[in-house]
Specification:
The protein is of the alpha+beta class and 196 residues long. 54% of the residues lie in helices and 30% in strands. β1 and β2 form a beta hairpin. It is rod-shaped.
Length: 196
C-alpha cells in the first residue's frame, strides 16, 4: 500500500487528538501528584493532631500535678515543722540522755555525718546510739522517744542480753526475802535524725 498523504483536515484532527491526549496525560499526572500530596499532607495533619493531643494530655497532667503540689504544701510545711532544726539537733543528745536517766538506763550517743537533702530524703545526720538496762525500762524509753521525736529513723537495731536474770534469797531475822533481779539488755541503734 502506498503511503497516503494526510490532508489538512486529517492533520488538524490528529493535532487536536494529540494535544487532547497530551492534556489527558498531563491531567492524570497532576491528579496523581495532587492525590499523593494530599495523602502526604493528611498523614502529616494526623501526626500533628496526635502530637497536639499528646502535648495537651501532658499539659493537663502538669496542671494536675501543680494543683496537687499546691494542695500538699500545707501538709508538707506541717511535716517540715515536725522535723528538728539544726539548733534543736544540738540538744537532742542531752534530751535523749535525760529520758534514759529517768528510766535508769546507761546511755551513749554519737553523731555521724551530715548528709544533704536528696529527692528521696531530707537533710539528715546519721547517729550511733547504745543504751542498756532492764528490758521494761528500755521499752518505756523507746515508747517515749517514738512519741516525742518523729524525725528519728532507726536503720539498724541490735538487741543483746548482757546479764542473765537471777533470784537471790537473803535471810533477815526469821524471814527469807526473795529478790528477783531481771535480765539486762543492750540495744545498739544506727539511725538518722532528719532536719528541716
Amino acid at each position: 500500500m502506498a503511503k497516503r498523504k494526510l490532508n489538512y483536515f486529517q492533520k488538524r484532527i490528529l493535532f487536536i487528538l494529540g494535544i487532547g491526549l497530551l492534556i489527558v496525560i498531563l491531567l492524570l499526572f497532576i491528579f496523581f501528584y495532587l492525590r499523593f500530596d494530599i495523602l502526604k499532607r493528611n498523614k502529616k495533619i494526623e501526626e500533628d493532631k496526635s502530637e497536639l493531643l499528646r502535648r495537651q494530655q501532658m499539659m493537663e497532667r502538669i496542671q494536675k500535678l501543680e494543683s496537687e503540689i499546691k494542695e500538699a504544701d500545707p501538709y508538707f510545711l506541717k511535716l517540715k515543722d515536725i522535723l528538728l532544726s539544726e539548733t534543736e539537733v544540738v540538744n537532742l543528745e542531752a534530751q535523749l540522755k535525760s529520758i534514759a536517766l529517768k528510766y535508769n538506763l546507761d546511755f551513749n550517743f554519737r553523731f555521724g555525718t551530715l548528709n544533704q537533702e536528696t529527692t528521696s530524703e531530707p537533710k539528715h545526720y546519721t547517729f550511733n546510739l547504745t543504751i542498756s538496762g532492764r528490758l521494761d525500762n528500755l521499752i518505756k524509753w523507746l515508747e517515749e522517744i517514738s512519741q516525742k521525736y518523729f524525725s528519728l529513723r532507726f536503720d539498724k537495731v541490735e538487741i543483746n542480753q548482757t546479764k542473765e536474770g537471777s533470784v537471790s534469797k537473803t535471810k533477815k531475822g526469821n524471814e527469807i526475802i526473795t529478790q528477783t533481779i531481771p535480765p539486762s539488755y543492750e540495744i545498739k541503734i544506727v539511725g538518722k535524725v532528719y532536719l528541716r
